[in-house]
Specification:
Number of domains: 1
Number of strands: 12
Shape: globular
CATH class: Alpha Beta
Distance between the termini: 28 Å
Helix content: 25-40%
Number of helices: 13
Order of helices and strands: EHEEHEEHEHHHHHEHEHEEHHHEE
CATH architecture: 3-Layer(aba) Sandwich
Largest sheet: 8 strands, mixed
Length: about 325
C-alpha cells in the first residue's frame, strides 16, 4: 500500500550548551537526537516507536508533525515534501496531522471550557461555524462521551483523568485527520481506564482510516495496538518488524533487554537480571561502530570498528547488529 507519510534518513541535531573548554577551543557540540531514521506509514496502519528515554522517539514524532525542522533528510506526506510547503499548505497539513498528548491535565487550557477547547481547532482551521455543533457532537460520541450537555460547559479540573484524555482525543479527531501521533497516550492514566482509551483509538483508526504513530516504552501496550514496531537507541532504529515478531523473536540485544524488562503477571515468577547495565551514552559523543556496544553483553571487536548495516533477517524484520 502506498505510504501516507514517509521519512528518509531523517536527522535532527540540537546545539548543546558549551563548556568552558569547548568555548575556548572554538568547538560547537551538538546533541544527535535523531541520526538517520527512515520509516513509513500507510493508511489504517499503526506503528510504534519504542525505546528508553532520550533515544529520540519523541523528537522523531515532532519532526513528522512539522513541529521541528530536520537538520537533514526528507519527510513526504501524500507524496509532497513537507520542507517545500508554503504557509497555506502547512496550515492544510496541520488539519490532517494531529497529536494526542501524554498528560491530559496539561494538554487543555484550564481557563477554557471543554466546549471552547473542542471548537478551537475548528476556528483555527476556518471550518464554517455552521458545522461546529455537529462536529463537536460527533467527536464526543466517538470517544464515548455522548452526554455533551453534561461535559461541554465544564472546565478541565472538573473532569477525571480518563475523561480528560477522551476530550483530548476528541479534539484531535474533530478535524478527521489522516495522521495521528499518540505520545505515551495512557501513561498518566489509571490501569483501569487504559484499555478503554486504547480501544477508542483503534476504533478511530478503523472509522477514519487514519495512520497512527505511537510513542511508548511499554511493549505490552505496543503489542496490543500496533501492527509494526521500530526500536530506537541513541537516535537510530536498531530493529524493525511486525510487532508480534519483534516481541516474540527479538534479534537485537537491546530489543531482547526491552522485552525482558516487561513486568510479569506473577510476582513469584523468577527472573534473571537484565543483561545490560549502565546508562545511555552521551548523545553529543556517541560510541564508534555500534552505538550499543558499551552496554551489549555479546559485543565483539568488530562492533567497535564497524557501524552495523540495517539489513533484513526474515519474517519482515530488519536489524542493525553484526551478530543477528
Amino acid at each position: 500500500m502506498a505510504a501516507l507519510i514517509e521519512a528518509a534518513d531523517l536527522v535532527k541535531h540540537f546545539a548543546a550548551p558549551r563548556t568552558l573548554r569547548e568555548t575556548l577551543g572554538g568547538q560547537r557540540p551538538v546533541v544527535r537526537a535523531v541520526d538517520g531514521v527512515s520509516l513509513r506509514l500507510a493508511p489504517r496502519e499503526t506503528v510504534a516507536i519504542v525505546g528508553e528515554s532520550g533515544c529520540g522517539k519523541t523528537t522523531t514524532a515532532r519532526l513528522l508533525l512539522k513541529l521541528l525542522e530536520p537538520t537533514a533528510g526528507t519527510i513526504t506526506f501524500r507524496g509532497t515534501d513537507l520542507s517545500r510547503l508554503d504557509r497555506a499548505a502547512t496550515r492544510e497539513f496541520r488539519r490532517h496531522a494531529q497529536l494526542v498528548f501524554q498528560n491530559p491535565f496539561d494538554a487543555l487550557n484550564p481557563r477554557l471550557t471543554i466546549h471552547d477547547s473542542l471548537i478551537e481547532p475548528l476556528r483555527n482551521m476556518r471550518i464554517p461555524r455552521a458545522e461546529w455543533d455537529g462536529r463537536v457532537a460527533l467527536a464526543m460520541r466517538r470517544v464515548r462521551l455522548p452526554d455533551a450537555e453534561r461535559y461541554l460547559p465544564r472546565y478541565p479540573h472538573e473532569l477525571s483523568g480518563g475523561q480528560l484524555q477522551r476530550v483530548v482525543l476528541a479534539r484531535a479527531l474533530i478535524l478527521e485527520p489522516a495522521f495521528l501521533v499518540a505520545d505515551e497516550p495512557v501513561s498518566m492514566l489509571d490501569v483501569s481506564v487504559r484499555a478503554g482509551i486504547l480501544n477508542l483509538m483503534r476504533e478511530a483508526r478503523d472509522t477514519l482510516g487514519l495512520a497512527a504513530l505511537y510513542i511508548s516504552h511499554d511493549l505490552a501496550l505496543v503489542r496490543y495496538v500496533c501492527d509494526r514496531t521500530l526500536v530506537m537507541y541513541l537516535g537510530r532504529v536498531v530493529e524493525e518488524g511486525p510487532t508480534e515478531e519483534v516481541v516474540r523473536n527479538p534479534r537485537h540485544p537491546y530489543t531482547r533487554a526491552l522485552v525482558r524488562a516487561v513486568p510479569l503477571p506473577r510476582v513469584d515468577q523468577p527472573r534473571d537480571a537484565l543483561p545490560i547495565k549502565g546508562n545511555v551514552p552521551d548523545a553529543r559523543t556517541p560510541p564508534s561502530g555500534c552505538r550499543f556496544r558499551d552496554r551489549c553483553p555479546v559485543a565483539v571487536p568488530r562492533c567497535t570498528d564497524e557501524d552495523p548495516p540495517f539489513r533484513a533477517v526474515g519474517d519482515g524484520a530488519l536489524v542493525a547488529c553484526h551478530l543477528a
